[in-house]
Amino acid sequence: MGRVEGKVVLIAGGARNIGEASARMLVAEGAKVVIGDLLDDEGKALAADLGEDVARYVHLDVTSEEDWAAAVDVAVTEFGKLDVLFNNAGIFNGAPVQHFKREQWQNMIDICLTGPFLGIKAATNALIAAGGGSIINTSSIEGLRGTPWAHGYIAAKWGLRGLSKSVALELAPHGIRVNSLHPGRISTPATDAMPEGMIQIPLGRPGRPEEVATFVVFLASDESSFATGAEFVVDGGTVQQVPMNL
């Protein structure tokens, strides 16, 4: 208990799944959280369940600079500072490349890459004012490889991986660490609807949101004080597989 005692964390995409699990675990370990999402009912319910002394909900469209500024302001105004930014909002769509519409492509880039960039831009001065901190960006195992049909998603997640590295170098002198998380298949209503056998996982099962949240707590805490510009893969061994033609 108390691994992130006194820290204030802003979570984009915090209302459900990995975001919700992270919010709950961070609070259990002593943090205060600002939950940002478009899912207002779920986000408000989560904040109420966690308690008004440790949680706030803000409506956050990650493509809006105004929403980002407001979310950072809630952290600083309500809890006095901002120590950690967790960029966890994202969407997925896919199609064969010749049918992949420009609007689909742009939507993926806007939410999964431009959104985190805007969050980093909005949060940096508050993190510097707090004396340093941590930025955690949710990429994906698709930010480490290529997969048919998922072109916009893969481009965004590779881009977010690279953005994490460049910002890590720029902000290191301010004591701000920047790392990327690369989950594989995590059990959510969307992934649970996929056909069995569609994704092969060496450990034999999907991960749980809480299993990613443990990495979020680690990266938010001082336990990871010498880790920056790094990738943390949480995928049950999926990206380690090498197809064999025997």
Structure description:
The protein is α/β, with parallel strands linked by helices and 246 residues long. The chain has one domain (8-234): Rossmann fold (3-Layer(aba) Sandwich). It is built from 7 helices and 7 strands. The chain has helices spanning 17-28, 40-50, 65-79, 102-129, 151-171, 189-192, 209-220, and strands spanning 8-12, 32-37, 55-59, 84-87, 133-138, 176-183, 231-234. Strands 3-2-1-4-5-6-7 form a 7-stranded parallel beta sheet, with helices on both faces. β5 (133-138), α5 (151-171) and β6 (176-183) form a beta-alpha-beta unit. The protein starts with 7 loop residues before the first strand and ends in a 12-residue tail after the last strand. GO terms for molecular function: oxidoreductase activity. Belongs to the short-chain dehydrogenases/reductases (SDR) family. It comes from Nocardioides humilatus. This is SDR family oxidoreductase.
